[in-house]
Design the sequence.
């Protein structure tokens, strides 16, 4: 039986792409470039701000303009990061089930604490554990953050489950010995197939998580 449910943040627990799109398009407008659609942003965002800049401006990290653009993007994002971000539809039933069963609720993300904590605060989301790169030496796909989360939640890895929308989430979960759920509804990078990640479970929509939690708890 599981005691804790751990989520990746962007593209798994929360749909944050609308606010990434806002921030990126504000930057593109300042640079006199055409805006991008939300669908275009979704396939770029899984690797964070660096990939957004690299793809939107077609430049590499060693370009002198790269870091100034990235810093401006992050400033826009910090100002708008919770404007339109929301839980994925259908996830509330799983969260209610977790509460009723007394399951711990944790977030393990590669999003820096500055942004992750503000989003949760702005949206009045209370979690039992938030683990960001700020808390560990090696972020995902290293399993360190998952070990850290289980320690904070006083459970073993066998008593937890981890849901994520990126291969690095599944790699981290498997390395930690935690059962994994691939969120196929999330921000899947172009050209990748969720079925090739070898997750223990795959969910096509957020509402599918409930059946897995009922089975394991």
Sequence:
């Amino acid at each position: 039986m599981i005691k804790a449910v751990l989520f990746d943040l962007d593209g798994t627990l929360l749909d944050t792409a609308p606010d990434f799109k806002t921030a990126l398009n504000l930057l593109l407008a300042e640079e006199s470039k055409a805006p991008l659609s939300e669908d275009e942003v979704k396939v770029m965002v899984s690797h964070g701000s660096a990939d957004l800049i690299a793809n939107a401006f077609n430049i590499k990290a060693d370009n002198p303009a790269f870091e100034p653009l990235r810093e401006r993007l992050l400033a826009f994002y910090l100002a708008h990061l919770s404007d339109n971000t929301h839980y994925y539809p259908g996830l509330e039933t799983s969260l209610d089930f977790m509460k009723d069963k007394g399951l711990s609720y944790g977030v393990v993300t590669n999003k820096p604490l500055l942004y992750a904590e503000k989003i949760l605060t702005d949206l009045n989301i209370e979690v039992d554990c938030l683990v960001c790169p700020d808390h560990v030496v090696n972020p995902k796909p290293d399993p360190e953050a998952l070990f850290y989360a289980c320690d904070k939640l006083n459970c073993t890895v066998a008593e937890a489950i981890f849901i994520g929308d990126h291969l690095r989430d599944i790699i981290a979960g498997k390395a930690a010995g935690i059962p994994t759920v691939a969120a196929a509804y999330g921000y899947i990078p172009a050209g990748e197939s969720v079925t090739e990640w070898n997750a223990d479970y795959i969910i096509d929509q957020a509402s599918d998580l409930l059946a897995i939690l009922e089975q394991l708890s």
